[in-house]
């Protein structure tokens, strides 16, 4: 979504919310006024309804910029809750005092004819390009590295020391300085004078502790020596630059407040985070299966259940047992969540936009980065071949013992050899990492991905029939093909073979079955998935 469109939608949402807020505040004030005009005290049921309505405003108004109103409603809701907890029914004159406080709060709202005051929203840096400046006085060296990084999706500009003013004006995300041709004595003073410098990477001559220590003291975030490997620089840049990937983080938002949930959705979208909103709690399980989120934002007060109950319902399914849950806690729920820590984190309402993004990024990246096995392939982060073999023996024994279906898939990137030959191994490594990332993000938490050989991966899918596994891998294949997976305008696809491990006589027999089906998929023209029905 473009920033202008997002801003327009946020403003339209704010207008819609304020219109609703006027109605809600007036309804509460009318109810309190009616109760205060009686001769007898208000009932507990009436007070509970007023308390819940006030808390709803306290939870949401701050997210739309009305902090004072949020605070006022929160204080009044707290007072009413104390009466209810103490079994006290306030006298009419006491309610009249609440009426005055609510009237003061209502005056903080803008008039409906003037709903467009400046509203502060989070300004996010545009990092879509991944801009890298190469500084050095050897044109051939700069050009070779620039071509390699450009093939990996970065926008690279080359500069010599006499061009540093142009470099600064370009505002890159990172600068890689070649100290073989530009000694530190020539560039350090200029760099230190830069008020807000980008990330610094250094290409040096010395491969020792002292050289690395000196680089760190000059603010370097990366240090490289010959022979220069563009894939290593790529991995460093990916940690430093928030480049959008084909697979953004996915967040499931469970909140019955339509406008507030949409506000969270738009804020996360502005940070490059995808999200799916569920306003009806009963639809959550279907959303989990269809969307497969990396994290769930769950309101603690839902119409059918509490947030903790919702989290427990989700985690009854093994596929979501490790799903991080961040509670959107309201009122007294904030204290309860702080004491019990029943979720991975909690955010007190009204939720600050920056805190929302920071919390989601922290926990969602952690769950993507964490794995159930220690043995990980250095390039892709998936299981090594040895760890994969151990896992296959365990899953085979489990499938034989329980009788539940377990499927295997062997996936191989098409023409990866030609890719390496024409564009270098850095390009091949880039595509291999992208496919590994795509697989781990699209599969279930209980599924496993292992590096089989070169550009090939083996996927283990417990509690999954071969037919369902073939449909899942086919869906992933189509998604991978449709996204911008190109190297120098060359499209990247994969082929796959699928079979049931539970049907095989041994692990070796199961691997042989998927290997044969992958081979036939390659012979049939590549870019396809073959399974049981494709003999």
* Tertiary shape: flat
Task: Summarize the biggest pleated sheet.
Answer: 5 strands, parallel
Q: Within the largest sheet, what's the order of strands?
A: 2-1-3-4-5
**Euclidean distance between termini CA atoms:** 44 Å
Oligomeric composition of the shown chains: single chain
Low-pLDDT residue spans: 115-129
Structure description:
50% of the residues lie in helices and 16% in strands. With 535 residues, the chain is α/β, with parallel strands linked by helices. The chain has a 5-stranded parallel beta sheet, sandwiched between helices. A 5-stranded parallel beta sheet has the order 7-6-8-9-10, sandwiched between helices. Strands 12-13-11-16-17 form a 5-stranded mixed beta sheet, with helices on both faces. Strand 3, helix 7 and strand 4 form a beta-alpha-beta unit. The longest helix is centred in the first third of the chain and has 34 residues, at 3-36. The chain is flat and about 90 Å long. One of its GO terms (molecular function) is diguanylate cyclase activity. It catalyses: 2 GTP = 3',3'-c-di-GMP + 2 diphosphate.
